[in-house]
Amino acid sequence: MATFKQVPPMSANFGQACYQCFAEQTPEKQLSRCGACKRIGYCSTACQKKNWKEHKTLCKALGELETTGSGMSLHFYNLSDPTAGDSINTMELTEFTNMSIHADIYFVERALGRPLDMIERNLFAWEPRCAACGINERMLRIRAREQGQGSSTQLQKCGDCLSTFFCSPRHWALVKKTHNTVPAAVNYNGMTLCQINQLIREDIRVANLLREGKAQQGGVSSPDFGPLLPWAPNRTMEGWKSLLETDWEKEFLGGIAEELPFPPGTPMKPFLRAASDNLTLPMTILYALERLYGGDLAFTREEVLVIHVIGAADLEVMNAMMFEEILHRLPEVKRVEILLCGPDMGKIGGSEKPGGVALSMETCPECTEKDRRRVQIMSSSLYHDYVAKAGASFKAPALAVAFNSGASEVETDSWKATMKVLVEKKIPTVFTAFNRGEAEKEAALLKEAGAELVPALGPCRNPWGSMLFKVEPASLEGFYNSNGWFAGGFK
Questions:
Q1: For a surface tag, which of 193, 194, 211, 340 has the fewest beta carbons within 10 Å of its beta carbon?
Q2: What are the Cα distances from residue 164, in Å, to 32, 38, 84, 133, 476?
Q3: Is pLDDT at 305 greater than 90 in this prediction?
Q4: Distance from the first to the final alpha carbon of the chain
């Protein structure tokens, strides 16, 4: 059985859950901090011993950072003053936080003689910091030693969400002005930052329960290798139903409560949020089709509906079964063809061939009985190369979609070439992003390529983005979610 390195959740990076087994700290069961680096905690000696082999080199480097390497972060801190007035200067706070994190990572990577991996970087990106001034506990300890102060070297936290920290009563007073009274800038159903933090913590607990369940069944128990809750409704709808005036709870809450084997009375909304992380793929496709084609519902009656997923990665491969929801919501469609196109498909044999490799995927008993099929084609080509190789035989899909493309952040020149082809070939297209910033940057790239964006498809929130919100690394008040924003749609 394959095993994979599990990614510690935010609570473990906060030092509020065991860094080995992820068991959450409770009043009855406190964690023991690592005595050397003081950065992470464990629920037992056994867990600490299990984790020591992986942790010991980083632990030593963290110790060196505190004794000799945090001077640059403190220098940045002394230069900044985001709390000079009666409110917090969030721009200055963000700038200091990013500089501090980069300086600390730079020092530790030099001490280790290698780049940090993603799990190690999370210890810096999700390190508890005062939400008003950005100071962390390591800096508090250094400052106390340098100034000979006997004051506390520990951050305090909000008693409700446990995820917002402060270093002094004055700074908590500044934070509290908006923390649990003003809707967060991310605009999630009018919830405050404190409420979203509580929701995220609840989702982490559910993820731990699902992970434990998979482990007990002998399955791969990492959330990074396979969806934790690969659920979709076991039904085929009688006809197309518009997605413009409905939402996740109306469409799926009743079904998940009925079909999953939980005791009566179990709160199901957290499990729906977990399932939405996978279902966002087909639902985003269907919503984009409806928005792009307007009153023309021909796509709901196509015998073969072709969808091209651009820049496809492991996420789409592991969630391949979710695309059957397209068949289940379009009962007149006989076959759905999903092209997964991108260099990450190179690990799949035959994907390097012109046109890729096609696989006939398993469907539910009802679809199988009615000869309704789902075909998955995988190509390791860049999409603009895929189109060029096809030449005159290329046929535009009903929709090309780039999920969470990151086009403005990585491989931008390659994405620009793809955008140019999409516009020139007049291929119906939609791009999604994790957050508003990425969406707005990618919208600018699409417009630069000549795309005339449909206003309802960005840059704007995606009502069918994942319900699972996550805290932005290196951010004190930012959140993101898979397919959370439409960057732009055009045809």
A1: 211
A2: 21, 19, 20, 12, 8
A3: yes
A4: 45
Amino acid at 225: F
Tokens 């399932």 found at: 275
Domain assignment present for residue 202? The answer is no
CATH number at residue 420: 3.40.50
Where in the sequence is the domain holding 71, given as residue range(s)? 10-154
- Residue 374 belongs to some domain of the structure: yes
Handedness of CA 113, 119, 124, 125 (dihedral sign): positive
Neighbours of 4 (CB within 10 A): 12
Structural tokens at position 224: 């990074």
* Residue in this structure with the two tokens 């979609």, named with its chain if needed: 401
Cα(309)–Cα(342) distance, integer angstroms: 9
Q: Of 124, 154, 184, at which residue does a domain stop?
A: 154
CB 481 within 8 A of CB 465: yes
Residue that the structure tokens 């923390």 belong to: 179
Gyration radius (Cα) of the chain, Å: 24
In the chain, how many domains are there? 2
For residue 214, being part of any structural domain is answered with no
H/E element, 254: helix 254-259
What six digits make up the tokens of 59?
């632990």
The 373-379 sheet, strands edge to edge: 357-361, 373-379, 335-341, 304-310, 399-402, 429-433, 485-490, 460-461
Does residue 118 carry a pLDDT above 70? yes
Q: Of 134, 154, 174, which residue is a domain's last?
A: 154
